[in-house]
Amino acid sequence: MKNIKDYDLEELKKELVEIGEKPFRAEQIFKWLYQEKVKDFDDMTNISLDLRKKLKDNYTICNYQILRKQESKDGTIKYLFDVLDGNAIETVLMSYHHGYSICISSQIGCKMGCKFCASTGINFVRSLTSGEIVEQILAVEQDTGIKISNVVFMGIGEPLDNYSAVVNAIRIINNPRGLNIGARHISVSTSGLVPGIYRLAEEKIQCTLSISLHATNNEKRNSMMPVNQAFPIEELMKACKDYIAKTNRRISFEYALAKDNNDNLEDAKELIKLLKGMLCHVNLIPINKIDNGIYSKSSNESIMRFRDYLNEHGIVATIRRELGSDIDAACGQLRRKNLK
User: Fold this and answer.
1) How far apart (Å, rounded) are the C-alpha atoms in residues 272 and 312?
2) 331 labelled catalytic
């Protein structure tokens, strides 16, 4: 049967018409799913018994089971969810002064092969559906009783490699009758799938685009991120400039600093040259050690020197606060570990 959470509001209206119901019923169902967060059609008490039967006969409600829950000393919580087909994904809840942020996965496994990311060590199984993406937020809110205010598509998988499901999930998350999280509080990260960047620019969704850059020339980026061989830096920068021109939205460039690799002032100078004149922000990430990883974290002195140099030369740069590293929940460490 079909997962009812796979449909945005307009799609659900069409679905209901096909089973002989009025479109406005979709708004009632949306409220039950995303505001009341019910787990059973029988709990939707203001719709008829007949409609509830139709829903049960035609759709399922995706309710994840928690396989493992780990809490960091800094309050970060990492979940291992059963996606109900024998596979599992990881999702991370983080607490900030501005509220709660959730890092969600878009695929089971990843095809990109980035050398600094633990997800590289697991086989790609499949992409998640829209409902499976959104369910991560619902499951965490149900477990904790908190309201999530920010969503980042930075978990396992490449969001723009699962383009349609991710965009549809954003529409559900953003919809006032859905999870009602503002588009500007939603961030989509990509390793640099250029066609997806062009498509996203046309969507008129006011989310934040984050580009995993991590190097300033093709030779170095090829060695860190195989995707660069398909979409080299020149093509990536062209797509980014087009995105900014079409959306008037600032891009966040993620730059993971690896010791003796991309963390010296020459790299900083190249980065300034690459981004000069662009509406952007640089998010510096102390690279996290992973099993069998070839990179190690830059020293704090090198990281701060890199940040200060960028800021002094007109590129706004900040250092991402490291959260959850003691439970392998920090950037690049998610890999849906099994229970063994």
Assistant:
1) 10
2) yes
Q: Supply the pLDDT for residue 332.
A: 44
What's 151's DSSP letter?
E
Q: How does the average pLDDT of the chain come out, rounded?
A: 91
* pLDDT higher than 50, residue 253: yes
Active-site entry in 110, 114, 207, 331:
331
Number of Cβ within a 10 Å radius of residue 104: 28
Structure tokens at 133: 């993406």
> Which one of 90, 135, 158, 254 is the catalytic residue?
90
Q: Is the predicted pLDDT of residue 70 greater than 60, yes or no?
A: yes
Q: Say if residue 339 is exposed, middle or buried (CB neighbours under 10 Å; 0-12, 13-18, 19+).
A: exposed
62 noted as active-site residue: no
pTM of the model: 0.92
Exposure b/e, 178-214, CB count within 10 A at least 16 = b: bbebebebbbbbbbbbbebbeebbeeebebbbbbbbb
Dihedral angle at the C-alpha atoms of 333, 338, 339, 340, nearest 10 degrees?
-100
pLDDT digits (tens, 9 = 90+) for 5-26: 999 999 999 999 999 999 999 9
Distance of CA 239 to the CA centre of its chain: 20
| Residue 93: alpha-carbon gap to chain centroid | 12
